[in-house]
Specification:
Layout (H helix, E strand, L loop, with lengths): L3 H38 L6 H7 L5 E10 L2 H5 L6 E22 L4 E12 L11 E5 L1 H9 L5 H12 L6 E5 H7 L4 H8 L27 E5 L11 E4 L30 E6 L4 E13 L2 E7 L32 E2 L9 E4 L14 E2 L10 E4 L6 E15 L14 E14 L2 H49 L6 H5 L1
Parallel strand pairs: 2-13
Antiparallel strand pairs: 1-2, 1-16, 2-3, 3-6, 4-5, 6-7, 8-9, 9-10, 10-14, 11-12, 12-15, 14-15, 15-16
Helix pairs in contact: 1-8
């Protein structure tokens, strides 16, 4: 049986080790956790995040809602009526993303293309791809818009030419044609034969996503930060289409923000930035507040009235209009993307003109905006994991009366932003990834309690060892003679 001295030494040694080890781990655990997280998330061919980033495993869906114009006959009859629309859909497509031609650069960046595929999901849709949608002919509107600054003497013959192929400015086509298959138009065929015309449309058909399904180069080439040199820049774009600028002027033309798939751990900053190649610029989403999804606490960011402002309410966004603010600078709430859409009079807004200037919706009957249509993104703050993405935008065509273009001037209102369709691109964290996230977060928050427990156990062991030692010392003192015996003293 070990002696009291050995018991005390063992208890005090173990207690000291547990107290020091537990205290050190309590202090340094956040740093250790973050270092491990950084190692897993920094993008490299061997990192944990790479496979998830290259082939996004979380199901994604594109929901398209089409606007069908219901009072074409009244408009063509010359009645002074407002444009009336009805919303049809959603027409749902399952979406997949794969990164291609990945090149790792020495400066902590990666170059890649984003290849996307869409497959129609009839059981999730409301309607059929063969549904007929009546709307503005985008080719007529585009030709008129592009020619608006040309002399009237040139516009009139172009108008006469277009009337040879179109009786009016409206067109009826199936949903599938409006979206991915494309609509045939003889004007496009003729434009292909005469490349010197002032109108450049590099497609033989018109469709909002025509030639995009499975295209490698449609979205352009991206240069993205891997987080190797600066972890806070993980997932942020450095260049798009070999440039750090887009068509917009000043700060509005900067290429910046995340592509939406990789985020460095966020600590609740007031806004986040997403770069959207479809509109050739970035979007800022403002912090709304805490949210909870699948048992995981996160922070919700959403669009507000500043999203597509162009200087009316927020002066720092005046660069979305020309320096000379004329009639081409529309009221707040709709972003002019014609410069990145081959000159087409395309404007992007939130669905049903949510958060837009009343100038737009007051000219359209049949709209019903609500907050569920807002652009939202929820992030888990400690890992940067997207919990939910609801990217919701509306595509509109500006139809403005232009002298000499009678075919284009058939709407009662001479300056109407016509809603064509809106889409919701939604991603939600799956049960599998939610479990992994909860495990990681529980590990982060739970282990310190274990370290505290080890520290407390160590303290008890130390106290026990000290108690045994003190009892031994006191016992030894009690049994020792106070004075030497008289015989020993005489000697």
């Amino acid at each position: 049986m070990p002696s009291a001295e050995k018991k005390s030494a063992i208890l005090m040694t173990c207690g000291s080790f547990l107290v020091v080890g537990g205290a050190v781990m309590v202090v340094f655990w956040p740093t250790i956790f973050f270092a491990q997280l950084k190692s897993m998330m920094t993008l490299s061919p061997t990192s944990t995040s790479f496979e998830i980033w290259r082939d996004v495993p979380i199901p994604m869906y594109l929901e398209c809602f089409m606007f069908n114009i219901t009072n074409v006959d009244e408009i063509l009859a010359g009645k002074n009526v407002s444009l009336e629309v009805e919303e049809l859909g959603p027409y749902v497509y399952k979406e997949s993303h794969t990164k291609k031609n990945i090149t790792w650069n020495a400066n902590g960046t990666v170059t890649f293309y984003n290849e996307r595929f869409w497959h129609y999901v009839p059981e999730m849709s409301n309607g059929s791809l063969s549904d007929i949608i009546v709307s503005i002919n985008p080719i007529v509107a585009t030709v008129a818009y592009v020619m608006r600054h040309q002399p009237t003497i040139l516009r009139v013959p172009v108008d006469v030419f277009m009337r040879m192929y179109h009786e009016n400015m409206f067109i009826s086509a199936k949903v599938s044609d409006w979206l991915f298959d494309g609509i045939d138009d003889p004007i496009l065929d003729i434009a292909q034969r005469f490349p010197d015309l002032p109108i450049t449309i590099p497609y033989d058909k018109f469709g909002w996503f025509y030639t995009r399904n499975g295209s490698l180069e449609y979205d352009g080439i991206f240069l993205m930060n891997t987080g190797e040199n600066d972890f806070s820049q993980l997932g942020n774009l450095e260049k798009w289409k070999y440039s750090n600028r887009t068509e917009f002027r000043d700060q509005c033309g900067e290429v910046k923000g995340s592509t939406g798939e990789l985020w460095a751990p966020e600590l609740g900053q007031p806004e986040i930035t997403i770069f959207a190649p479809d509109i050739c610029t970035y979007m800022n989403l403002a912090k709304v507040g805490p949210t909870r999804i699948q048992g995981i606490d996160g922070m919700l960011y959403a669009a507000n009235e500043s999203l597509f402002d162009n200087g009316y309410r927020y002066p720092n966004k005046a660069c979305y209009c020309d320096e000379v603010r004329d009639e081409n600078c529309m009221p707040a709430g709709a972003l002019n993307v014609s410069s990145c859409r081959f000159g087409a009079p395309a404007f992007v807004s939130q669905p049903h003109f949510l958060n837009s200037d009343p100038y737009y919706p007051k000219k359209i009957k049949g709209l019903s905006p609500n907050e569920d249509m807002n652009f939202e993104l929820a992030l888990e703050m400690y890992t940067g994991m997207p919990l939910r993405v609801a990217a919701q935008l509306q595509i509109n065509l500006l139809v403005r009366h232009i002298r000499g273009f009678s075919l284009n001037n058939q709407l009662p209102d001479g300056d109407t932003l016509v809603p064509m369709f809106w889409f919701r691109q939604e991603v939600r964290v799956t049960d599998e990834y939610a479990r992994l996230a909860r495990f990681a977060l529980n590990l982060r928050s739970g282990l310190p309690y274990g370290f505290y427990a080890l520290t407390v156990i160590g303290v008890f062991l130390l106290v026990g060892g000290i108690f045994i030692l003190m009892r031994k010392l006191l016992k030894s003192t009690d049994t020792s003679p106070i004075l030497e015996s008289p015989h020993e003293e005489i000697q």
